[in-house]
Amino acid sequence: MSARDTDWDGVRLHVVTGKGGTGKTTVAAALALALAAGGKKVLLVEVEGRQGIAQLFDCPPLPYEERRVASGRDGGDVHALAIDTEEALLEYLEMFYSLKRAGKAMTRLGIVDFVTTIAPGLRDVILTGKTSESVRRRTKSGAFLYDAVVMDAPPTGRITKFLNVNDEVSGLAKVGPIRNHADTVMKVVRSPETAVHFVTLLEEMPVQETMDGIAELTAVGLPVGGVFVNMEHEPLLPPEVRADAAAGRLDLEDVERGLKAAGIEDDADRIAAVLAAEAAEHARRTALQAREKERLETLDRPRYTLPLLGDGMDLAGLHVLATALRDQGAA
Q: Is 86 exposed, middle or buried (0-12, 13-18, 19+ CB in 10 A)?
């Protein structure tokens, strides 16, 4: 598949969500690397304050400024931004109310935390607004500063509320800067330039949350992207062996003979029993994956599969995942 052959031509904001534990930050980082290939400039944005991006790219904690963290294949750069709610609010106050100095005083008094706690919709407007500004930002020549922006977004259970900021601020402001800012954010979020991608594992709960999340986004008219199946376990045993293992029909004596032929004499009977139990668990997991795959096939969305990397996750692993995404047309 060529670098130009992508399912998301024209999309400039990729929002990545998923149930906790599915690896959404890892997938967001890999997608940013994939999009940066061929000389592109990509911004990877974190909004949850966990510094997960810094850990993945093995760099110091990110300040509230855009920093280059990696290079894509054949040139290109990935920059990262960890949005600090407090700093973003001060920036917002200066931009719309010329109140940066007063905002710093509010910070010392703890009023910023108080405001964003009693009005969580304002917090979401600030976070999505900073990301939307990055999508729209242009250079002096008029070109977009970033070819694409990838947001490591909140989990699936909160994503619709997080992105649908117009509804969130309806009780805060009917007119004025907050309302105008929310309207500007929604123009970006609802546009064809945005796609909200879901990360899942081939397990019942993550798949169900993915299906529910897609239904919720669709119901409010937000743009659904693709489904990224993370950490898929490849079958290690042929179908007939898995069937026997699942049914408890493995011949333990045959397994023992195989162990002894491999030079394992001590405790061969005990090891054979352990291997049979592991084979049964493998068969169960493989059957579960197949069942959840069938459920995902009912969704009319592009689907991408990422392998389970046995050596843990580092920058080299991210590049492996980025290549897999490009090969499948995700970038």
A: middle
Q: What is the pLDDT of residues 179-200, one digit of tens each?
A: 777 888 899 999 999 999 999 9
User: How open is the CA angle 55-57-59, to the nearest 5 degrees?
Assistant: 70
The token pair that represents 243 in the structure block:
């069937």
Decide: 54 and 159 in contact? Cβ < 8 Å.
Answer: no
Contacts of 131 (CB under 8 A, 6+ apart): 13, 45, 47, 83, 149, 151
pLDDT digits (tens, 9 = 90+) for 33-58: 999 998 999 999 999 888 899 999 99
Residue with tokens 């054979």: 272
User: Of 156, 134, 160, 157, which is closest to residue 147 (Cα–Cα)?
Assistant: 134
280: Cβ contacts below 8 Å, ≥ 6 apart: 245, 246, 248, 250
Separation CA 243–CA 317 (nearest Å): 33
d(CA 331, CA 326): 5
User: pTM surpassing 0.70?
Assistant: yes
CA distance 116 to 95: 18
Third-level CATH fold of 13-233+308-327: Rossmann fold (3.40.50)
Distances (CA, A) of 41 to 13, 94, 166, 317, 318: 13, 28, 30, 20, 17
Q: In this predicted structure, what is the pLDDT of residue 180?
A: 78
Question: Which DSSP helix (H) or strand (E) runs through 195?
Answer: strand 194-200
Q: Which tokens belong to 34?
A: 């994939």
Q: What is the pLDDT of residue 2?
A: 39
Nearest to 90, CA basis, from 74, 101, 78: 101
Which stretches in the chain have pLDDT values below 50?
Answer: 1-4
The per-residue pLDDT for 319 is: 95
Rg of the chain (C-alpha set): 24
